[in-house]
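Running this now, will post back.
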Amino acid sequence: MKRRDFTRCATALAMAAAAPVAFGQTWPEKSVKLILSQPAGSGADAMARMISDQLAKKWAQSIVVENRPGGQNVIGAQAAAKSPADGYTFYFATAAALVTNPYLIKNLPYDPQKDFVPVGMVGKVPFVVSVNAGSQFKTLEDLVTYAKANPGKLAVANEGPKTFGGMVTRLLASQLGIQVNAVSYVSVGAAVTDTVGGQVEVLLSDMPSAVQMIRSGRLRPLAVTTAKRVAGLENVPPIADTLPGFDFAGWLVIVAPTGTPAAVVQRANRDLEAILTDKDIAGRLLAIGPITEGAGTVEQTGAFLRREYERWGNVTKAVGILPE
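Update: finished.
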């Protein structure tokens, strides 16, 4: 897929928003739809519904959360991309949907850079390296020492080679100079269960999936994948302490179909910013997943997506993944 970016769309939005637009002043006049690629009951679903409830209050209209899971986010992303660009459909998107799928899937039925315009960031989701409570490994350095002495024997659970966890596992092993046995699971829940039970030695998962077992003492966290320590796991060092510059996190962002009126996008961005900078809401979100620092501007969101698109292109090359 040829590289495209959000620059043109973001610039057009900013210019259009500078002038009064009647549509933006009267919108919304009916229910709004928020599509997401995850199933009901998932962490992303809980986040989307929490934010939707707050936006609905600001917009004085109901917001329908439509779950379209499956196909590595393709089903939901395609549905959102093909929706009318009338200001009444938004997409609660993951990094997989917008920046990694183009490098993993041949003939992707949507173009994440052409088919969407940025609205605003929701938050970043740290990943954590953890082991079961009875493990011999007390630190990341312990794990690395063992892996170097026993090439290929260290079993690391993740959701598969083409997931965030799987790709970061391979990248981390490469940069640490170790060989591991990456064990793929059909769900992160199964990976957590087997790590707690000692069937596999190490787990690399998103923080929300592991945090309850960490808090209960059944998993021991060794490191987080972000460059800095994270709220909720303040005592856990970042991998960057061992590998300077290492900084990876999943993330969630709201986008809209290309062609959505600029005034609507700017209104949605401002209201999302107000919600995410509310300390109570930010705290409630942190309890179930992302660390938020506000929505940012439309332009900032577009710039972030461009950087991530390029970065993940480099990551997939580094770990030797080709689209299928």
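The radius of gyration is 20 Å. More later if anyone needs it.
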